[in-house]
Amino acid sequence: xxxxxxxxxxxxxxxxxxxxxxxxxxxxxxxxxxxxxxxxxxxxxxxxxxxxxxxxxxxxxxxxxxxxxxxxxxxxxxxxxxxxxxxxxxxxxxxxxxxxxxxxxxxxxxxxxxxxxxxx
Amino acid sequence: xxxxxxxxxxxxxxxxxxxxxxxxxxxxxxxxxxxxxxxxxxxxxxxxxxxxxxxxxxxxxxxxxxxxxxxxxxxxxxxxxxxxxxxxxxxxxxxxxxxxxxxxxxxxxx
Lengths: 120, 110
Hints:
A: 120 residues, seven-stranded mixed beta sheet, four-stranded antiparallel beta sheet, B: six-stranded mixed beta sheet
């Protein structure tokens, strides 16, 4: 069974940083791309970014709204992906989901999400 | 880039059909057959219902179907059931390694 489990969310002051983790199991993590998607309370889904596999040079891509502040990385030996969020703003408050992309361009499996709250 | 355009709400009685549209541009929905649909119940993670415009993952009832015409994709839920009441989001690959979601449609089973 495919499982993705996010962790690392919490309450952070504006301007602070946070590193979220996404632990994966049940599929070939090293061969899959991993995406991050966020959802503010009562709002829609927003694609944040993606990291490809080693075979694809761990290439990353980000939404314009987070480019330069967010960084996605991965550690295939631990089947874990990460989202480093810097210079946090109140508008970054959201549930952050990690998702797998095993084939094509489909975000196929989702974790349960981790809540990031940015407030003073 | 703006989000894909979905109607905010849709409804139908049990047993009826409801169709949700997802309008993009010739650079995203119209350019790629990489449109997906997700179902989200309150407090739950999104679940993939349709991928690559028309394909259903294993375990998704065949009451759910997808299609595309030009820059608009559609999700149809036939034979509506109470458990189909949820938010539905479309997504499309937009090229340049960027993905995009629609604003979401709340489906109500009357």
